[in-house]
Amino acid sequence: MSTVEHREDVRRAVPGRVPRWLLPGEFLAGGDGTPARRTPRDWTADAVTFGVAVLLGLVASGIVQRYDHPPDWQIALDLLLGAPACLSLWWRRRHPLLVALLALPAVAVSSSALPAVFVLTANLALRLPWRRSLLVLGLYVAASLLGTLLLQGFDADGVSGVAFALAYYLTAFACGSTLRARRLWVLAVRREADLERAAHARRLADTRRTEREAIAREMHDVLAHRISLLSVHAGALAYRAEQSAAGRGPGLDGTEISESARVIRDNAHQALGELHDVLRVLRTDDGERTTPQPLLAGLPELVVEAGAAGQTVEFHDGLGTDAQPPRPQLQRTVYRVVQEGLTNARKHAPGAKVTVRLAGRPGSDLTIEIANQVPTGAPAPDIPGTGAGLTGLAERVRLDGGRLSHGTADGTFTLRAALPWAAE
Prior knowledge:
9% strand
């Protein structure tokens, strides 16, 4: 995956599509070793951190000068080491270990570097593995203790200074460790989301492939039968013509030729019609045919079965009984749409009333609408479940020249399909 693709995936994975400038640069890195570039959020955080470190450093240095009265050389050394420690905060993201090690002298003797060193210690725990960060933390504590004892001595002030330094650095390290744990958790959740999205895409692709393979088997079964009939009739006609031309058989009269041509034409039309219908004939793995798939006449039984399973189904058949029935493939598609709608309602809205409506006439669209109330307090997803069932159904409807739509409005989930119903 390229860096650009990775960054786009990150933006899609963040709830609410958080703008890129609000994310840390580490979240947008490509994961291929490319250094993370600062985002506007990072630049703002770094500027604020630098400014606060300088301000608090000057305050800390002023307090030390007021109450401890250090000599001038110590004040100059304090400021001389504190200024680079504050400036190094700008490079702490890319070089956390180097910046931390260079700040060791400031840790030992500079009070003005204390705020900057707090940030550097937390930065260590945030960006480095715990073994290396603990090693540097130990160096910080040792340097601070050594500097405190050398400058303040082994009296009560020195002991309290040692206790303060120990608590100070451990607090900074704990803050950085907490941020690291949270960041690792966010990255782990993002990876899981990426994996789940890829697995979902594979499931949808498998559903489409299975649907196409079944269609290919049906085409083979239908066309093999019809084309074999065409071949028999055309072969017989050609054989009679050859025998007649060779004088070894009676001649062909116009009636016989017309009858043979009519049979071939009718079978060709039948083959084209059945190819268009894409007859659904399922097979088991060993090639044995299963029972025929249901037609519109099976819908009342399907509704009764749903009622026996505990669903409340209201069925409205607006197709009428005087119209010419749709072609068998279209009837099977209608049956599958209703079946999938009832299954979805049973899975995602148990106990909810389901309304099934059929409408249409030859020469127009045959429409199917399955609606159910979304349970109170439950989310209203655009696609219930994994979407694999609706994906296969959409593929089936599309191959019949129809349209499938679904969605939630006013607390009601509706599955709607429109299929072309050819006039005789």
